[in-house]
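Risk mitigation, structural track. In case the binding assays with GPU fail to produce interpretable data, a predicted complex structure has been prepared as a fallback.
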Amino acid sequence: MQLRNELVRVEADRTGTTIDNLKRAFLENLYYVQGKPPALATLNDYYMALAHTVRDRIMQRWNNSAITYTENQSRTVCYLSAEFLMGPHLGNNLINLGLYEPMKQAIDELGINFDELIEEEGEPGLGNGGLGRLAACYLDSLAALEIPTMGYGIRYEFGIFKQDIRDGWQVEITDKWLRNGNPWELARPEWTVSIPFGGHTESYRNSQGVYRARWVPAWEVKGVPYDTPTLGYKVNTANTLRLWKAEAPESFDFQAFNTGDYYGAVNAKVVSENITKVLYPNDDEIQGKVLRLQQQFFFVSCSLQDMIRIMKGQKIPMERFHEKFAVQLNDTHPAIAVAELMRLLVDQEFLGWDEAWAITQNTLAYTNHTLLPEALERWQIDLFRDLLPRHLEIIYEINQRFMDDVRVKFIDDDARLARMSLIDESGERYVRMANLACVGSHAINGVAALHSELLKQTVLKDFYEYSPEKFSNKTNGVTPRRFMVLSNPRLTQLITDRIGSGWITDLEQLRQLEQFIDDPAFCQQWRSIKQAIKQDLADSIQKDYGVDVSIDSIFDIQVKRIHEYKRQHLNLLHIITLYNRIKANPNIDITPRTFLFGGKAAPGYFMAKLMIKLVSAVSEVINRDPDVRGRIKVVFLKNYNVKFAQHVYPAADLSEQISTAGKEASGTGNMKFAMNGALTIGTLDGANVEIMEQAGEENFFLFGLTAEEVRERKARGYDPKAYYNANPNLQLVIDRIASGFFSHGDKTLFQPIVDNLMQSDPYLLFADYQSYVECQDRVAEAYRDQDKWTRMSILNAARMGMFSSDRSIQEYCDDIWNVKPVTVKETEGFCSAT
Ligand code: GPU
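Fallback model:
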């Protein structure tokens, strides 16, 4: 049956955008959706009513996008990612709808504080850091560029933990983000799929008498999709983020009924639902746990089966899978897609191996996000076979054919064969997911120019030599909608007043700001905006931490996951150096600074947690030492997340991007800081290289060894003690930490950090120490000339155009996905506005 066209109308209360429409809609939603009269409404009720008012205004775009893509059988990008770190939706959706200002006016006119409602929203923390946030920025740009897209991932019940700091230590609190309901998602139980696990394989003869393989799984779970719209900026495109929740199949209930084992059946239900219970809180590191492999296979199989359902719904023959879908693998977390797509095409859709393999390779592409060896995913063979016996067979088959090809191309090179094999057989046997991703994809890319080069020279060298045509670079980017327009309205207004609003979707236009760097009025406005934003952050630090920070000090900020390679402790070595100078000479003339840190440590990462404790310990001593006279302050900002990040980037004077060269694949915080006018102190690592290239060397504070020098230094035999012995300032810093000065006399507390640096210093803090401190002295000097600093700040923002995720996504579209925009009309199908 089918609804007649005229029967459905889109009413003004649901779509109208006059101030009056918005006010009425809000009150209606409060009454009918939240079920509250104003007298009983809580702040959350107001937030929910507002969210529904916004959601209603998304629906027509979302439905029209779905209709358009279905009717046109549009080629679609599927971005597969174990993490999507979306951040709060409300403000972002209002920006993309072009309704931020009218909605603010409407709500304020009702006597409710709009900004407070924006602050009321929590965030779906379904990611750890850079990788998950990149996926979110890419969904924003894909929609802005009107590219038909599905984001596919996992609907974790608990996202990244909430971080509290107690006695200077990190404490983890579970993130119950769904507690108050989620107005942005719609469950789509009608598209539930079934996911098999375990068991064994067998062969059988089909009706033509041909032998085929069959997987006889031991258990299964249901995957239920939950959809969230992702809007494009001021276009009608509304794409879908489809996240899968694991549920027990209903057959469990029948089993209980039949056998009387009610407890056993309920327990089985709990076990199934565990699969999407919690996000693994490790960044750039693997754990090798079976539940994690279950999560990966679960969301990949759900997503590929969903694509097959869509193919069938649109009556597209399965041979054309790669024409309908371009599937991007966000790191190796979804790399099991190579084997799963083969299984679905060969075992379920009965395609021949060679045809299925061509489709698989043409469909898939792989982005690598790290060179760190501890982050390269591999699974123990036994664990893998127990969970996915058919996939192991398929991987063996792929590997046999692949090894034959390599053997022909590189004759008599057994070492190379062993390195490239999908199975690591050097000791205990493992499935190598990066190798699987490389072999099964037609395109492989790194995330910054340096990173992509190093990939070809190191971890993926053999694969580069085997198929160089697959490799390319796609430097990361960030969305200027969330990280400028939404989070920095004052700067947005100033820029738009001068150059119009075209820069929001064409960030290179920011270059037009260069013409104003000698305009004193403009520079003064730029500077006073920065000061006003710093004041807001200072107020919130006063309120939350009771620390008084001066907006005339340099806001020197390092926010990112806590990791030894990111070297938050190098930052600390500089802070203690300044402190030692003050103690040696209390009247020394130093440029005042506020050092802000933020970031989470993986709960099992002892050194990272100790680094947080050291920041806290140093801040306690420095902030209350009267000799310091407030000239330096140190604050650890707890529970750093997307929402808080939006307050942090605009307030920064100095962005700390100080990883050991060759370790940070790209970084994306570096871009968010710079486009908001912060200057960067950084190494030649990741995208810093390109940021400096764009900003100009004279507008960037560069220090430290290059990746090449790091490699040489290590090859020669790096000895941190030599640096310690040769540098009295460094000695004093280390000795102060070791003496218990920052730990109430306890010499053991920070010993693991001291010993690690003195004995091995794997991230070369000591080698870079002097260069870093001298560079920081240049920063302090530069800040004293405020006119010059402001010009440098403007030039940084003006030259960050290439770091819009719109540019990154355009490159993916052109070079990897071969996909074109599809315009969604305002009204289509059976919906007509009244
Ligand atoms: N990254 Br692998 C993560 O955040 N988590 C991971 O598990 C892996 C990589 C980051 C890189 O460390 C960072 O340099 C990069 O900018 C980001 O991915 C996005 O590409």
